[in-house]
Amino acid sequence: MFNIPMKVSIPYLSEIPAIPLGGFDVIIVTADAFVDHPSFGAALIGRYLEHLGLTVGIISQPDIKRKEDFATLGRPSMFFGVTAGNLDSMVALYTSQRKIRSDDSYSEAGRTGRRPYLPTISYTNKLKEAFPGVGVVLGGLEASLRRVSHYDYYQNKLRKSILLDSKADMLVYGAGENPLKEIVDRISKGESIRDIRDVRGTAVPVKGS
After folding, report:
1. Environment class of residue 97 by beta-carbon count within 10 Å: exposed (0-12), middle (13-18) or buried (19+)?
2. Residue 116 CB: number of other CB atoms within 10 A?
3. Higher pLDDT, residue 105 or 185
């Protein structure tokens, strides 16, 4: 697991500087290995948020059995962003025959065992446990494709929106730059993440759903 303040270009724990005074504005948690390249969504969005003037950290492939992995960069002032990575986690974990893959293309050296089952859900649960009341925004391919009720081939059943299953506060689908800019602008002006319910390109939980 690497915990990366985005100002660092080489992702090694020994080279990570101190957490900035006041903590991070946004912390992204990803199920992929950290690669600071625009083909990796967590790095791309992290750099974009930095461009907006925010301080950003990345927690890469935390161990869901260790709550301290999720608390290592502290509590963000705005929200945690959670992504399953460049692939839907079920595609990354299993073949079309529902057999566990022998390697993970988006983990260091292709090693398996670093990506949990449905990380969008498990990561959000751990963050809510470590930081009660913290805002969590989902994004990435898995969140986008599973934002509505859907048939899960691997479980052979219908599932609710991943937003509801994870109990996150908001889901950004598709390209996230424009929605995120509006979200961070409004939070900067004093709005709570839970009061922002009308940004195009987002889904939010509705009471009774």
Report:
1. exposed
2. 20
3. 185
pLDDT in tens, 159-181: 999 999 999 999 999 999 999 99
CA distances from 46 to 23, 154, 176 (A): 15, 31, 11
* DSSP 8-state class, residue 165: H
Give me the helices (H) in 60-152, please. Answer: 67-71, 89-93, 119-130, 141-145
Token look-up 């090693």 returns 111
3-state secondary structure of 114: coil
A 10 A CB-CB count for 107 gives: 19
Half-sphere exposure of 43 (CA within 13 A, CB side): 16
DSSP three-state, residue 134:
coil
SS3 86: coil
Which amino acid is it at 167?
K
Three-state SS for 14-78 is HHCCCCCCCCCCEEEEECCCCCCCCCCHHHHHHHHHHHCCCCEEEEECCCCCCHHHHHCCCCCCC
Domains of the chain, earliest start first: 2-203 (3.40.50)
CA 98/CA 113 separation, integer angstroms: 16
Pick the closest to residue 144 from 179, 102, 101 (CA basis): 179
Whether the CA torsion 81, 148, 41, 64 is positive or negative: it is positive
- Segment 98-104 shows an average pLDDT of 76
Chain-wide mean pLDDT for the chain? Answer: 85
